[in-house]
C-alpha cells in the first residue's frame, strides 16, 4: 500500500499524472477538484454551496473537503493506494489527513511536488478555459486560486520535507518527461 500526494499549483498537471498512475499502478485518485465538481453536478445542497465558493475562486472549507476524502478512503485502501490530488491544501488539512490515516494504520508515503512557473500556468489556464469553459478555469478566478495556493498551500513543503517525504519534479517538461521523473521517484528505494 502506497499513499502519495501530488503537490503543485492548479493546472500544474497533477490530474493528468494522477490518471496515468491510476491506469498503470491501479491506485485510486482522490481528486478534491473532481469530487467537488461531482457534488456541484449532483445539484445537492452541498453542491450548490460549493459552486458559489469555487466560482469566486475561494478554497472550500477543510470540513467539507475532509469529509469527501474520508468517504473515499476504503476504496483506496482496497486498491492498494491513494493518490491525493489537490489535497491537502493547508497545514490544518495535512495534519487532519495524517491523523485520519494514522487511525486507519496508514500514512502518506511520498509527496511529489511538480515545480512549475506561475506565468506559464497563466498561459496554460487561459488556453484551457478557452477550450472547456469550466468556471474554475476562468483566468480571473485562477489568479485568486494561484494566490491562495502560494499563500496557503506552498507552506506545506517544509512540513513534508521535515518528514523526509518530499521529492521535487520539474513539472514544465512534456507529459512523458514528467511521468518518467515521477516513476523514477516512486520506484527509488526509500
TrEMBL record:
An individual GO BP term: AMP salvage
Record field: catalytic activity: AMP + ATP = 2 ADP
Domain of life: Bacteria
A Pfam family this chain is assigned to: ADK
Keywords of this entry: ATP-binding, Cytoplasm, Kinase, Nucleotide biosynthesis, Nucleotide-binding, Transferase
GO CC, alphabetical: cytoplasm
Domains as described in the record: Consists of three domains, a large central CORE domain and two small peripheral domains, NMPbind and LID, which undergo movements during catalysis. The LID domain closes over the site of phosphoryl transfer upon ATP binding. Assembling and dissambling the active center during each catalytic cycle provides an effective means to prevent ATP hydrolysis.
Known function: Catalyzes the reversible transfer of the terminal phosphate group between ATP and AMP. Plays an important role in cellular energy homeostasis and in adenine nucleotide metabolism.
SUPFAM superfamilies to which the protein is assigned, alphabetical: P-loop containing nucleoside triphosphate hydrolases
Subunit description: Monomer.
PANTHER family in UniProt: NUCLEOTIDE KINASE
GO molecular function, one term: ATP binding
Protein name: Adenylate kinase
Entry similarity comment: Belongs to the adenylate kinase family.
Amino acid at each position: 500500500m502506497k499513499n502519495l500526494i501530488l503537490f503543485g499549483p492548479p493546472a500544474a498537471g497533477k490530474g493528468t499524472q494522477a490518471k496515468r498512475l491510476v491506469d498503470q499502478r491501479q491506485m485510486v485518485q482522490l481528486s478534491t477538484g473532481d469530487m467537488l465538481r461531482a457534488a456541484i453536478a449532483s445539484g445537492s445542497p452541498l453542491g450548490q454551496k460549493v459552486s458559489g465558493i469555487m466560482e469566486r475562486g475561494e478554497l472550500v472549507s477543510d470540513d467539507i473537503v475532509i469529509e469527501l476524502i474520508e468517504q473515499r478512503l476504503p476504496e483506496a485502501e482496497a486498491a492498494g493506494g491513494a493518490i491525493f490530488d489537490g489535497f491537502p491544501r493547508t497545514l490544518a488539512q495535512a495534519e487532519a489527513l495524517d491523523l485520519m490515516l494514522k487511525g486507519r494504520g496508514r500514512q502518506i508515503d511520498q509527496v511529489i511536488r511538480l515545480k512549475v512557473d506561475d506565468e506559464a500556468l497563466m498561459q496554460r489556464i487561459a488556453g484551457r478555459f478557452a477550450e472547456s469553459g469550466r468556471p474554475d478555469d476562468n483566468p480571473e478566478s485562477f489568479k485568486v486560486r494561484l494566490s491562495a495556493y502560494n499563500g496557503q498551500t506552498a507552506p506545506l513543503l517544509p512540513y513534508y520535507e521535515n518528514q523526509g517525504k518530499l521529492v521535487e519534479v520539474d513539472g514544465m517538461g512534456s507529459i512523458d518527461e514528467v511521468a518518467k521523473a515521477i516513476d523514477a521517484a516512486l520506484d527509488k528505494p526509500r
